[in-house]
Amino acid sequence: MHTLTRAGLLRTGAAAALAASGAGALVHTAAADIPPDADLAYARLLVAADLLAADFYAQALAAKQFGTPAAKELKRAAFNEQEHYAAVAGVLTAAGQTPATADDIDFSYPARAFADRGSIAKLGIALEQLQLGAYLGAADAVQSEPLRGVASRIAANEAQHLSLFTGLLDDRLLGVSLPLPLGIGDASNALGAYTS
């Protein structure tokens, strides 16, 4: 079993960037249907981010800090994250790779992250900003379909999740007009704060 680490993600991203710089053209001439290494590196990062989000939602729900309407929305977001994982993991599987699972990653959160409604909402905002930025970054950077289309569609849903938490925290459902994408290095660094 291979454990996904932040350092491993960064090494993979650096190797993918090297491959994409010109040497990658030699590697992928025979396998036109396989996404380039840089796209697969992004897919691995997105899988890890989706696993983090799924773990977060499970813990947020287990904390029982929200009433029925909000808990229902959290359950729906958790379901969305499972579908996001399946979509991106499917890209990796189709490319002959084995996607990470929750058993491959140790998740960590700030102390008292699930102590009350406010702390959960603040962490939810941080994680959904990470998710949204990572998917926007992928939509900007990847070259292959279906990953580009999947990343764009998932980014739209992650924006809805972000609105859920801003609404829970300060009754403000709408965020910034143009959310910022995260490059693979920035997304990996942000993810590293919660995974090992």
Brief rundown of the structure:
With 196 residues, the chain is mainly α. 68% of the residues lie in helices and 0% in strands. The chain has one domain (6-192): Up-down Bundle (Ferritin), CATH 1.20.1260.10.
Structural class: mainly alpha
Helical content class: 55-70%
Biggest beta-sheet profile: none
Give the end-to-end Cα distance, rounded to a whole number of Å.
Answer: 15 Å
Net shape: globular
CATH class: Mainly Alpha
CATH topology: Ferritin
Compute the number of helices. Answer: 6
Enumerate the spans where pLDDT stays under 50 for 5 or more consecutive residues: 9-31
User: What is the count of distinct domains?
Assistant: 1
Query: Do you know the CATH architecture?
Result: Up-down Bundle
Strand content: under 5%
Question: What series of H and E elements makes up the topology?
Answer: HHHHHH
Arithmetic mean of pLDDT: 84
Radius of gyration: 17 Å
**Strand tally, please?**
0
Write the SSE topology.
Layout: H1 6-27, H2 37-62, H3 68-94, H4 117-141, H5 147-170, H6 184-192
Describe the structure.
- The protein has one domain (about 5-190): Ferritin, CATH 1.20.1260.
- The chain is globular.
- The model is unreliable at about 10-30 (pLDDT under 50).
- Helices cover about 70% and strands about 0% of the residues.
- The relative contact order is 0.17.
- The two termini are about 15 Å apart.
- The protein is mainly alpha-helical and about 200 residues long.
- The chain has helices at about 5-25, 35-60, 70-95, 115-140, 145-170, 185-190.
